[in-house]
Amino acid sequence: MVQLDTLDRLSTLDTNAVADALDLLGIKGAVYGLRPLWNCPNIAGRVSTVKFQIKADATPIVPPDTTALSETTTDGHVLVISGGIDGVSCSEFVVNSAWKSNRIRGAVIDGLYQAVDDVHEDRCPAYGRGVASISDCSEMMQGDFGLPLKIRDVIVHQDDYVTADSSGTVFVPAKRIEEVLDVAERINHRRNLLAEAIEAGRPASDVMNDPELQVISRDGRSQAVAVSSNSNPKKSTPETHGLVSMLADVDTAAVSDALDKLGICGQALGIMPLENYQKVTVGPAFTVRYVPVGQPAGSVGDFIDDVGEGDVVVIDNGGRTDCTVWGDIMTQYAGLRGIAGTVINGVCRDVNRAIGDQYPLFTAGHWMRTGKDRVEVGAVNEPVAIGAVRVNPGDIVVADANGVVFIPHHRAREVAEVAQLIEQSEAGIREMIVDGATLAKAREVFKYHQLQRTE
Predict the structure, then answer these.
(1) pLDDT tens-digit readout, 32-54
(2) Which CATH class is domain 2-178?
(3) Span 238-415: which CATH code?
(4) How far is CA 227 from CA 14, 201, 305, 329, 339, in A?
(5) Helix, strand or coil for residue 97?
(6) The pTM is what?
(7) 113: which residues sit within 8 A by CB, 6+ positions away?
């Protein structure tokens, strides 16, 4: 009964809260890079370990023996698998066998997996590094069940606890689980208090620095919050508003072509949308640069009160993927303040909140570990680097499902005019080919090969 209660408690928490609890307790458990292999449910359970290793000889191929697995795995367990070769998957038989016999809640694979369609069809939650195009058991052999594994840089033991969701995967030592759950539940309660205060209209800096809301208390009650208007008094200048309007109807592909034609470097390599956004996000850049934390630690999010309506927050965290600089409170507050979106040279967390709120986020990835006590704000509204692109405050950001581009403010009108011309020409080409013209003829008429060529 105690085990079921523990798993139920773990299932109600997201990986962000659990990872924060591990941080507070000084426990290593969050691993980066193990993502859902399909749009699968979250998982929480006890660990059953399996190790694969490279074969040392040419012994015949035999299916992995799952007899030992049945002895170490019961309902409530999650199969955790290590080993493998780059580009090769070898764990399908073990996962499918355990899932179909109702012995596991899902699988976490520190490696690649080939049979994604199978686990998707069977509704088996599967998390791993990615998908392999081939499965080659001729090079791999099953090792041991039930022994400690190293998953990335975390040592995982049989019967430890694991939870995984869209933000990542976290392991908790079995002997510390109750302690971790107590702290995580208090963190979750505090997060709810913060959300209530934000909804009531209190400024983010006020809420995040309120001593009463810093106390982590699972049984505490929400304090009365002073209600104020969520309207944002900071507005764009008429000039900036005009530039944004000119770019509102062009996508990043056209803007990128225009930048190429004008010899401007503005494409942010590796910064991608959180989901397949249907609309284009456009706005002036409000720049923020993070630095490693000092002593005493500085702030991590108070700048948000100074961001204007329609601005795009552009954060340079040096491309770090080991800690996040944007979460659900920031998403909620930004949405209430009419902020257009956020671009991060780094990672975010609480992705379900951003997706549910339809708040545009463009990042190098997402993970659940907090940036608090790891990084702090070093500068606001100074030049920052997003990949190889220098971004100045007030530069125009254009972002959509294709990625992110930045336009120097003083050249935004020129870029917008060229981008509009490119889109009009491409629309004309599409009309001609629908009417029966050859692609070569349509391109010739609209001078397609000169559209992106630098003048």
Answers:
(1) 888 898 888 899 999 999 887 65
(2) alpha beta
(3) 3.50.30.40
(4) 29, 5, 16, 17, 20
(5) helix
(6) 0.75
(7) 37, 89, 91, 92, 95, 119, 126, 128, 130, 131, 132
